[in-house]
Write a structure and sequence with these properties.
With about 375 residues, the chain is of the alpha/beta class. About 45% of the residues lie in helices and about 15% in strands. The protein has two domains: about 150 residues, no CATH class; about 180 residues, no CATH class. The chain has 15 helices and ten strands. A hairpin with a 2-residue loop joins strand 5 and strand 6. It starts with a strand and ends with a helix.
C-alpha cells in the first residue's frame, strides 16, 4: 500500500496524514487488510462495538449523493512494527504483511464499502483523508479509541468500561490513579476508576453463574435472547453499593455473594416477576437502579444489634424485605412491563417512566415505608418487657 502522505509529530511520536481512494479503502476493508477490532467473548481485548448496518448504509447513501462531502479523517493504527513503514518524497509505503486497524471512523469506512460493493457507486472522485498512527500494541490503540470516544463524542461506554478494566489489569490501579492526578489521563475517562472496573467484573460473574441473573445481562456485541438489561445499566446501578464506605473495600467474591443473597431475597418477595422477567421491569433498567440503589439502605437494617456487624445473608435480607412485602410497591403486578404491541398497559412502576428522577422517587418511597415499619417495630419492642 502506497499513499500520498505528510509526516508529523506530537511529543516525539511520528504519525502520517494522507488520503486513500474510496475504492481502495473499500477493497482493503473487504479483504481484511484493514480491520475493526470488535469486542466479543472470544476476543476480550477487542474494544469496538459491532458496526450498525443501519448507520453504515446511511453514510454510504450520503457519500454517494452528488455534492455530499465528508472531510473528517479516519484513524488507522499500525501495531508494533512501525520501523517497517517507509516514508519518502511525500509517500508512505506500508508493507503488504502489515494489517491496519480502523480505530476511529468504523461506520464511515463500512459505509464506503457498502456504497461501492452493494450500491455499485463508483466513488471514483472520492478520496478519504486518513491519519495513520503507529502504536506499541493493541492496548495502546484501544486507549486512544477510548480517549476519542469518551472526550469528544459521548458514545455508549460499555466497551470503554471494559477497556478501563483491562487498563487496571495491565498498568495497575496505583499507576493509573497517579496519571489521573497528574493530568496525564482525561478525567472524563478515569473518573470512576475506583469502582467501575469492579462493576464490570461483578456483572460478568453474575451473568455467568448467578441463580437470579444468569443470562440476563446483555454484554456488548453479544446476541443474548434471554437478556433483560444492558451491561451499562447494570454496572451504573451498582455505584451506590460499590462506593459506599462500608462495602467498597470488600473482596469481589464477597460483593458478588451479597448481591446474590439480596436478589434471591427480592425474588422470594416478588416471585411472579421472576417467572417471566421479560414481562416485568424488575430485572430491567428500572429494577436494577431502584433495588441496587436501595441495597445500602436495606443493609443498614441487617446489622447484628449486639456486634454491629452486617449480616448480609439471604435469610436476613428476606427477613427485612418481608416486613414491607405487603406494600403495593413490592407487588409484582405493579412492576408489569408495558407492551404496546399487545395492548398491555404496564403497572404503576412502569408507568412512572425510566428517568433517574423516577428511580429516585421509587427508592424514596420504599425507603420511607421501610423506615416507618422498622420504627414502629422498635416502638412495640420498647413497650414490652419479658
Amino acid at each position: 500500500m502506497k499513499i500520498p502522505a505528510m509526516q508529523f509529530e506530537q511529543h516525539g511520536k511520528k504519525m502520517y496524514i494522507g488520503v486513500i481512494k474510496a475504492s481502495e479503502l473499500a477493497h482493503y476493508l473487504q479483504s481484511g487488510r484493514i480491520k475493526v477490532d470488535v469486542w466479543t467473548p472470544d476476543n476480550p481485548t477487542g474494544y469496538q462495538r459491532a458496526h450498525s448496518k443501519t448507520r453504515s448504509r446511511a453514510f454510504g447513501k450520503f457519500i454517494s449523493a452528488k455534492d455530499n462531502i465528508s472531510p473528517l479523517t479516519l484513524l488507522l493504527s499500525v501495531r508494533g512494527d512501525s520501523d517497517a513503514l517507509q516514508y519518502s518524497n511525500g509517500f508512505l509505503t506500508i508493507p503488504d504483511n502489515i494489517t491496519l486497524y480502523l480505530t476511529d471512523g468504523q461506520h464511515r469506512g463500512k459505509g464506503i464499502e457498502y456504497a461501492i460493493y452493494e450500491m455499485n457507486a463508483g466513488l471514483d472522485d472520492v478520496e478519504v483523508p486518513v491519519v495513520i498512527m503507529p502504536t506499541k500494541d493493541a492496548y495502546e490503540e484501544a486507549k486512544q479509541f477510548v480517549i476519542i470516544n469518551k472526550t469528544q463524542k459521548g458514545v455508549r461506554t460499555d466497551l470503554a468500561e471494559r477497556h478501563l478494566q483491562q487498563a487496571i489489569s495491565k498498568e495497575g490501579y496505583a499507576k493509573l490513579k497517579m496519571d489521573l492526578e497528574e493530568g496525564k489521563l482525561p478525567r472524563a475517562i478515569f473518573a470512576d476508576i475506583e469502582w467501575r472496573p469492579r462493576a464490570v467484573e461483578i456483572a460478568d460473574e453474575l451473568n455467568k453463574n448467578s441463580v437470579v441473573w444468569k443470562g440476563r445481562i446483555r454484554a456488548p456485541n453479544v446476541h443474548q435472547p434471554t437478556a433483560t438489561v444492558s451491561q451499562k445499566s447494570f454496572t451504573d446501578s451498582l455505584e451506590p453499593f460499590l462506593t459506599h464506605p462500608d462495602f467498597r473495600d470488600l473482596p469481589k467474591d464477597v460483593q458478588i455473594k451479597v448481591l446474590e443473597n439480596y436478589w434471591m431475597a427480592i425474588r422470594d418477595v416478588m416471585k411472579d416477576a421472576f417467572v417471566a422477567p421479560e414481562n416485568y421491569v424488575v430485572q430491567k433498567t428500572t429494577g436494577v437502579f431502584v433495588f441496587n440503589g436501595l441495597l445500602p439502605t436495606i443493609a443498614k437494617y441487617c446489622k447484628d444489634p449486639n456486634t454491629g456487624k452486617y449480616e448480609l445473608t439471604y435469610a436476613r435480607f428476606r427477613d427485612i424485605l418481608s416486613k414491607i412485602s405487603k406494600s403495593e410497591w413490592l407487588q409484582a403486578e405493579s412492576w408489569k412491563a408495558s407492551q404496546k404491541r399487545l395492548g398491555v398497559i404496564g403497572g404503576k412502576v412502569a408507568q412512572m417512566g425510566t428517568s433517574q428522577k423516577s428511580f429516585s422517587i421509587l427508592r424514596d418511597i420504599l425507603t420511607a415505608e421501610l423506615e416507618d415499619t422498622m420504627a414502629k417495630a422498635e416502638e412495640v419492642k420498647a413497650r414490652v418487657i419479658v
